[in-house]
Write a structure and sequence with these properties.
two-stranded antiparallel sheet, 9 strands, alpha/beta, Rossmann fold, globular
Length: 200
């Protein structure tokens, strides 16, 4: 599959144009190890080094669509790995502030280099444990968790603005949490597979 076919296949699933446009702009091959470059546009998860994987494009598109991203938002991704999803978010959110937290130093450093080289100057990566969020930049309009926790991390909900949205895998489901003045609305989407969120 090439990039055009991948985007056509995502379009058939009904994803909105701003998400398809981001997949068209970002070069997935920049974010995967050299020996997997020929597979960069297959709709499958790929190794990104350090025994981690970049999710399948379909799953990424699904999570991004649940986030309902808009311009000028500040967005946090926990488990930013290769930086691929941060690049997609940066293409969707204009004039925003985008933060990634990654616990494996090698990935944090490598992704930072690639994103800078590709001109994603609105993205900042922090090396460390993101399971408690990123206090110094909170509150956020949107939080995406890219590794699967055992339960919905309540500290992350605390770091959302009112009206903010958290998208997080819990075991093999994706949860979309919308924060209201007086609580949260949660919706569950089943049937996904993620690497675990390591809580320290
Ligand atoms: N979204 C990434 C892929 C995510 S794979 C991409 O586009 O490439 C999940 C990542 O979560 C892995 O890189 C893993 O190291 C990281 N991770 C797991 N637990 C974490 C934690 N507590 N804090 C920060 N990162 C974590």
């Amino acid at each position: 599959m090439g990039k055009t076919e991948l985007i056509n296949s995502l379009r058939k699933h009904g994803f909105p144009e701003n998400i398809l446009g981001a997949f068209a702009k970002v070069q997935r091959e920049d974010f995967v190890p050299e020996r997997f470059r020929s597979m960069a546009y297959e709709d499958i998860a790929l190794p990104l080094g350090s025994e981690q994987t970049i999710s399948q494009p379909y799953t990424i598109a699904f999570m991004l669509s649940l986030l309902k991203l808009k311009d000028r938002q500040n967005v946090l991704e926990i488990g930013s790995g290769s930086g691929y999803v941060l690049a997609l978010i940066s293409e969707i959110v204009k004039n925003g502030e985008i933060y990634g937290v990654e616990r494996i130093r090698e990935l944090a450093e490598k992704s930072e280099r690639i994103l800078k080289r590709r001109g994603y100057s609105d993205v900042t990566i922090f090396h460390g444990d993101g399971s408690k969020g990123l206090k110094e930049k909170a509150p956020f309009d949107r939080i995406l968790v890219s590794a699967s926790a055992k339960e919905i991390p309540s500290e992350l909900v605390n770091q959302l603005k009112i009206g903010g949205i958290l998208v997080a895998p819990v075991r093999d489901s994706i949860f979309q949490i919308k924060k209201r003045e007086d609580g949260e609305d949660a919706e569950e989407f089943q049937g996904f597979v993620f690497v675990p969120l390591i809580e320290e």
